[in-house]
Amino acid sequence: MTQDYVRICPVCNSVDVSPDLSVPAAVASGALYSYRCNRCGFVGVIFPEIPIDEVPEPRNFEKGYSVLDVTYGRGYLGLLRYLSPFGVLLSIALYLTSSTHFNLLAVILFSYLTLYLFGKKYFDKYRILKIIGIVAVILYALFYRVV
Length: 147
Description:
The chain is mostly helical. The chain contains five helices and five strands, in the order ββαβββαααα. It has helices spanning 24-29, 72-97, 102-118, 120-125, 127-146, and strands at 5-7, 17-19, 35-37, 43-44, 49-51. Helix 2 packs antiparallel against helix 3 (102-118) and helix 3 (102-118) packs antiparallel against helix 5.
């Protein structure tokens, strides 16, 4: 005799749970190991499976709770926050030791990236800072192709 099981949300006890498709790398590789509750929006890896007969009543919840973000993007952004100052120092060292001016653009690009990572609230407030970043990336790509 087999018994049917269903996943429930650990926050609100809802059975309206689906695989989390917000991570493109996981979708492309087929490694869908994180789930999303469609009722409360909780995203996580641990969604217990219980028999259908033992499903509890859904809990009421407040929307203001904090949820741990398990997506890959924030982890890489946090890593960049630590590595971008080293990129600035390395690009300055390369600029001072080489005879080309191409490395000056790398200094500008890494400095912009560092400022963006540590002062994101200003970039959201002033659109000109985003435009400067786009121009710096385009110039870097163009000069990289020329040199």
